Amino acid sequence: MGTQLHVRRVTLHPETYPTAEYYPFSLAILRETRALELTTPVTFFVGENGTGKSTLLEAIALRCGIHIWREERVRFERNPHEGKLHEHIRVEWVNGSVPGSFFGSAIFGQFASLLDEWARSDPGQLKHLGGRSLVTQSHGQSLMSFFRARYRLRGLYLLDEPETALSPRTQLELLRLLVEMGRAGHAQFLIATHSPILLACPDATLYSFDRAPLAPVAYKDTEQYRVYRDFMRDRERDLVSSGGD
Questions:
Q1: What is the pLDDT of residues 57-77, one digit of tens each?
Q2: What's the gap between Cα 83 and its chain centre?
Q3: Domain 7-69+79-104+154-241 CATH superfamily
Q4: Which string of b and e fits 158-172 if b means at least 16 CB within 10 Å?
Q5: pTM
């Protein structure tokens, strides 16, 4: 892959955290990690749910000035520290900031519908996304139309579990796109994922959130790879052994 990067390092400052009791500042991995070195065009965050992957990804996006589309939620009990991690991290750019985007599958439908509304008054909006309305395509097709159009532009791109609505075949399409865009040298990706298909991206860096502090992990040492490998080797044994859980 090419070596041109936009962000070379993310530094965390746990000494400035306002609390150790409330999420996300209560997470050991965010308290014990001091920095992430970004040395490849594609970097993955991998680990179990609740370990802080999406939280750190969102914090990096906010610190980089990238807007995150989100649906407002009404909660009975509010955590005053939620969404504040970006105030306690620092991003080191290589040659100044670049534009980018944050993708989350849960909010993509809202974006697609809004884009359709804009296109009613300005059909030219769709030319940047393959010329077709995203809402008239299958979810997987619309995602790939968005990815192909957006990621050909120079920028920093953060994706939170993009595999959620993608078939294995479409995940392979996204993997090929990541490889192509990374080698082109103009796009840098930070991706939180559970997909062993995406994690197979050649020369990518994988950061494990399953132990503190954050550290790189080899592809074949990830839980995702080992679980899928063992299941495919002997699926009947795995089904029987998990029957009592």
A1: 999 999 999 988 766 555 556
A2: 16
A3: P-loop containing nucleotide triphosphate hydrolases (3.40.50.300)
A4: bbbbbbebbeeebbe
A5: 0.84
